[in-house]
From TrEMBL:
The active site is at 206 (proton acceptor). CDD domains: M42_Frv. The keyword Kinase does not apply. Keywords: Aminopeptidase, Glycosidase, Hydrolase, Metal-binding, Protease. InterPro entries: Peptidase_M42, Peptidase_M42_aminopept, Peptidase_M42_dom2. Its cofactor is a divalent metal cation. Zn(2+) 1 binds at residues 64, 174, 229. This is Endoglucanase. It comes from the Bacteria. It comes from Thermoanaerobacter kivui (Acetogenium kivui).
Length: 346
């Protein structure tokens, strides 16, 4: 499988929280050859199962499919579309973006605001408020209203780009990069024996409350789970020890089971996989938060891909980190003992 091409396809697809279904066909096409079973649960999460040789225990992987975006809230008298946000959109990045309004048909538009020439010197020093922005699709109000309704979704139009040194940039790498990690893991597991059944779940609505992880972990009842997400990496003005290109970040803290953490670190050392440690003193802000407390509780880990410029349309990650994350998970699963009782004691 060409993982960079898969990430490109996923990044350029559109699936704001609650509207992820447009990516289902692509995911099924890519994951069916590396899965034994593919199903969709009641909430809409896509579950790709890889059977183990024993099948006594269940290992769950979770990476969220949804992305942040915008929603139509009004159409003014001149046909300009007013909007609000879905998820944690950084409104400072919105002016001058090309967008697609997903109405009765897709409409290309641009986000406009008052030109700088017409701003007061005081306003020039401030970030533009979302209430002062609008989408211009080039139509009059009557024409817009025939095609666009209140509540329709708007997404940023952005092409996936390859940068130097295996770095890549695009929208929604949070967390479509994590979905690619699951693909790497399942493909690696085809080459080795592993005792336990693996459930790789593309979860929905993480950006608005880890909802897909909540429902899927409740239904699957995993014995072990590992969430896959992105984490902030060192960048200009961002002081972090975690860096892009230096391997996956393994989470450590109260959201993480210590035996799962230790197992991931031990495997990284055993197979010479570069890794970084991410201290998480509280809420991890990921699907791991919901999975850990599902039903009777689930021993949960977290593997994160270092990412720059999170929640913008130019999120930047490194393909080596993505592939190494998948290898780490595959080796971890393949090295789990046949009996897990006692293995996961604190």
């Amino acid at each position: 499988m060409d993982y960079k091409d898969l990430l490109k396809k996923l990044s350029e697809s559109y699936g704001v929280s609650g509207h992820e279904r447009g990516i289902y066909d692509l995911l099924k096409k890519e994951f069916e050859p590396i899965s034994d079973e593919v199903k969709e649960d009641n909430f809409g999460n896509l579950i790709f199962k890889k059977k183990g040789t024993k099948g006594k225990y269940k290992v769950m992987l979770a990476a969220h499919l949804d992305e942040i975006g915008l929603m139509v809230k009004d159409i003014d008298e001149k046909g300009f579309i007013k909007f609000t946000t879905v998820g944690g959109v950084d409104q400072r990045t919105l002016p001058s973006q090309e967008v697609i309004v997903h109405g009765k048909k897709d409409l290309l538009g641009v986000i406009g605001s008052k030109p700088p020439h017409l701003l007061s010197s005081e306003d020039m020093e401030k970030a533009i408020k979302i209430d002062d922005m609008y989408v211009d699709v080039g139509l009059q109000k009557e024409e817009v209203e025939k095609l666009v309704s209140i509540g329709d979704i708007i997404t940023v139009k952005r092409e996936f780009k390859e940068l130097l040194n295996e770095n890549v940039s695009g929208k929604a790498l949070d967390d479509r990069a994590g979905v690619v990690v699951m693909a790497v893991c399942l493909e690696e597991l085809k080459k080795v024996y592993h005792y336990h059944d693996v459930y790789a779940v593309a979860t929905l609505q993480e950006e608005v409350g880890v909802r897909g992880a909540t429902t899927s972990s409740y239904n699957i009842e995993p014995d072990i789970a590992i969430a896959i997400d992105v984490t902030h990496a060192k960048a200009r003005g961002v002081s972090r020890d975690i860096e892009v290109g230096k391997g996956p970040a393994i989470g450590k803290g109260p959201n993480i089971h210590p035996a799962v953490y230790k197992g991931l670190v031990d495997i990284a050392k055993k197979y010479n996989i570069n890794y970084q440690i991410e201290p998480l003193p509280g809420h991890s802000g990921t699907d791991a938060w919901a999975i850990q407390v599902s039903k009777k509780g689930v021993p949960t880990g977290l593997v994160s891909i270092p990412l720059k410029y999170m929640h913008t349309s130019v999120e930047t990650a490194n393909m080596k980190d993505i592939i190494e994350s998948g290898r780490l998970l595959a080796h971890y699963i393949a090295n789990l003992p046949e009996e897990l009782e006692g293995h996961l004691c604190y």
